[in-house]
Amino acid sequence: MLLAIHGLGSDAGAMRAYLEGAVPAGVRVLAPDLRAHGASTLIGEPDRFALEALAAEVADELVRVGDGSPVTIVGVSLGAALAAIIARSGRFPLDRVALIRPAFTTEPLPANLAIFPLLGRLLEEHRPQRALDELHRSGAWRAVAHESLAHARGLEAQLTQPLAAERRIRLLEIPRNIAYRPGELRIPAPTVVLASPRDPVHPLHVAEAWRDELGCRMLVSPSRDDGEAAMFAWFRQQLASFLVGVV
Predict the structure, then answer these.
(1) Are 235 and 221 in contact (CB under 8 A)?
(2) Over the stretch 144-179, which tens digit does the pLDDT of each residue have?
(3) pTM surpassing 0.85?
């Protein structure tokens, strides 16, 4: 079985851009919507948005639908952090793990994630259109746009998607988590890190730190600003190669 875990403010459907055509025929895919994302109706208190709590919910779902066979995990951004926790939990036999565009680090609220609590506060204080206007005036958004306009535009969806205000707690709380402690990031299965250049939310130095901690390969995609279709095609190609033999 393949477990696919999406990123912060995204949903399970976004995983198609990474996996469509890359998963071997016959492989079952579990792609859940995380709490306060997608079709999930769960929100809850701040402690429900600790990485360990989110990972436990995903793992419980995997127990419910799994058949005990080895699990392959593909996680994007927040999903990469949850994938690492699940892979290290010992709850499942593992086949392999792909960590795409990791964003979380050994520190709570690292600089690359600081814009998410800003988005949450704007949703607390303003209606979506006014929040979007205020975002464009902020130095944080302009700094992201200076490095990558494509990623800056992607952040706008955090304010305009359905139920954004009702689910703002995810933006306020999740970035406050650390992904791992130095020296403790060990995954007992073949692992690869896939990263992107010119990505201020998922910077290369974060991916490089994950690679160094894991002692695994890291591959770098084309830039999103040079063509989103080409970037996702690259991810699918790399994942198709990495997933050969998954059953």
Answers:
(1) yes
(2) 999 999 999 999 999 999 999 999 999 999 999 999
(3) yes
